[in-house]
Amino acid sequence: MTEALRIERVLVIGAGTMGAGIAQVLAQAELQVALADIDPEARQRALGTIERGLRLAAAKGWLGNRDPAALLERVRPVGSVAEEAAGADLVIEAVPERMDLKREIFAELGRHCQPHALLATNTSSLPVTAIAGASGRPERVLGLHFFNPPPLMPLVEIVRGERTAEEAVEAARAFVTRLGKEPIVVRDVPGFATSRLGLALGLEAMRMVEEGVASPADIDRAMELGYRHPMGPLKLTDLVGLDVRLDIAETLHRELGERFRPPQILRRMVRAGKLGRKSGEGFYRYDAP
Asked: Torsion angle of alpha carbons 50, 158, 11, 87, nearest 10°?
């Protein structure tokens, strides 16, 4: 990685579950992090989440001798993207999966970021090339797809847009390795590699519940014990969020056809507000959201 691409200051846009988790990962790598969200309550919730995550990491011995409070100080909550973009070496957008919103953000980043800055989206299904086009500098844009929860999941999927420069891909690969994560590089195709494979398994598990093949617990247990998956596809759906999985399924259904048509059970549960862990109920019930 060239000196111009040395990444020290990172702007994370979106203080939801993924944004907070990514910010924690960056703080643990001793980077300076601005966490931007227009909602002050979301910013405060994210700081609380990061603080709990860092204390847990310290209790597990994952931080060595480093003080979790000192690492938390590396995360600075902010309300404005424009004010922070000019000082960022890397921007990671982690807002909801809406193309109009992402393109609006990347248009703003194109106006305010320095020429050397790397611009990344954490999208799990939307086309990176279309997002990049709004920035006016598509050669500097790529996907950095972290997995939930980011502090625990070792994989980061680097998505190469149609006009992403090779230098940007190599800078991203080096950066992901620096975070202690494992990168894979994929082309900008619908669902990339991970969302496409993971969703196919999750949708089929939902159809099996719908058809009465087995209970959610037994379907999950089959994959955990029979195939050594660390978490069954329905537990994973509850963790990711049923609304998120529905959005991804609808995107892939449009792009790839009938094999990704969302099952009715998924639509009904989302309409009923059964979104998984974050709502307290999905395919399983939880004591609290």
From this structure: 150
The three-state secondary structure class of 276 is strand
Give residue 83's pLDDT: 87
Top CATH class, 194-271: mainly alpha
**pLDDT of 3 above 60:** no
- Show the tokens assigned to 86: 């000019």
- The residue ranges of every structural domain in the chain are 3-187, 194-271
User: 240 by DSSP, 3-state: which?
Assistant: helix
108, 133 Cβ separation under 8 angstroms: no
Q: Are 35 and 23 in contact (CB under 8 A)?
A: yes
* Tokens read off for 105: 């953000």
Cis peptide before 149 (omega within 30 of 0): yes
pLDDT exceeds cutoff 80 at 289:
no
Provide the H-helix boundaries in 14-143: 17-28, 40-59, 68-72, 81-85, 99-112, 128-133
Mean pLDDT of the chain: 95
Contact 85, 91 (CB under 8 A): yes
Q: CB of 145 within 8 A of CB of 153?
A: no
**pLDDT tens string 188-199:** 998 899 989 999
Rounded average pLDDT over 10-17: 96
Instruction: Say whether pLDDT at 137 is over 50.
Output: yes
The dihedral of CA 134, 140, 141, 147: what is its sign? negative
Q: Which two tokens stand for residue 234?
A: 């329905």
Q: What's the whole-number mean pLDDT along residues 207-213?
A: 98
Beta bridge partners of 185: 158
CATH class for the domain made up of 3-187: alpha beta
Instruction: Supply the pLDDT for residue 69.
Output: 96
What SS3 state is found at 229?
Answer: coil
